[in-house]
Amino acid sequence: MKVVHATPEDARAVAEIHVAAWRVAYRSIVSDDYLASLSIEHHEAMWGERIDSGDSELLVAKKAGVVQGWISFGKCRDIGSHNSEAELWAIYVSPTVWSTGAGRLLWLRAKELMLEQGFKSCSLWVFPQNERAIKFYHSAGFVHDGSDPKNFELGGAQLQEVRFVSQLGY
Ligand SMILES: CC(C)(COP(=O)(O)OP(=O)(O)OC[C@H]1O[C@@H](n2cnc3c(N)ncnc32)[C@H](O)[C@@H]1OP(=O)(O)O)[C@@H](O)C(=O)NCCC(=O)NCCS
Questions:
Q1: 6 assigned to some structural domain
Q2: N or C: which end of the chain has fewer CB within 10 A?
Q3: What is the CB < 6 Å shell around ligand 1?
Q4: What average pLDDT is seen over the chain?
Q5: Mean pLDDT throughout 89-108?
Q6: What is the domain range of residue 62?
Q7: Domain contains 129
Q8: Top mutation candidate among 27, 136, 142, 161 for ligand 1, by most atoms within 8 Å of CB
Q9: CATH of the domain at 98
Q10: pLDDT tens column, 155-166
Q11: Name one Pfam family in it (predicted).
């Protein structure tokens, strides 16, 4: 498996994994109607535009040329954050290959790039019910930072995300 920067040709696979992982990982978190309404075509267009714009980093893990998962990151978007703070915007691996190392490879490469780009720490937001992801983040060195949760509405349901943070230095 290798981790490389996404190209426009990867947009479809990125979108397929995005939608498939949401539908499995968020089944009991996000409403069924919202999950059913997710469109691969919509996400393909969105990711195609993001790849073209180069505004954020998008890395894909490929095995025999097939995308297994992806990670997106950039400067922290939280209000008041410092330029030295990165944010893991999203990481999604195809549910068919969960727990086979793709996520770990993606994170380790993203972390290398964050360090090269001068970032000192990395934060992320995660649903507190997302036990698989939280276990993964703990293994990768992230801890809940104790800040206030973020509340928002999605598909008619009230949801909450909590913030995790990791220092990037060794
Ligand atoms: C969370 C997710 C990205 C993890 O990806 P993955 O490819 O399944 O993870 P890996 O196979 O690399 O990690 C697997 C194992 O290595 C461990 N691990 C991960 N990173 C590690 C690290 N840096 N050091 C040591 N161990 C690590 C994990 O705890 C995990 O344990 P397991 O074998 O008991 O499953 C994936 O499950 C996913 O796409 N979930 C749905 C989407 C999601 O919730 N994304 C996060 C949104 S906030």
A1: yes
A2: C
A3: 21, 25, 69, 91-93, 98-104, 126, 130, 132-133, 135-136, 139-140
A4: 96
A5: 98
A6: 2-120
A7: no
A8: 136
A9: 3.40.630.30
A10: 888 999 999 999
A11: Acetyltransf_1
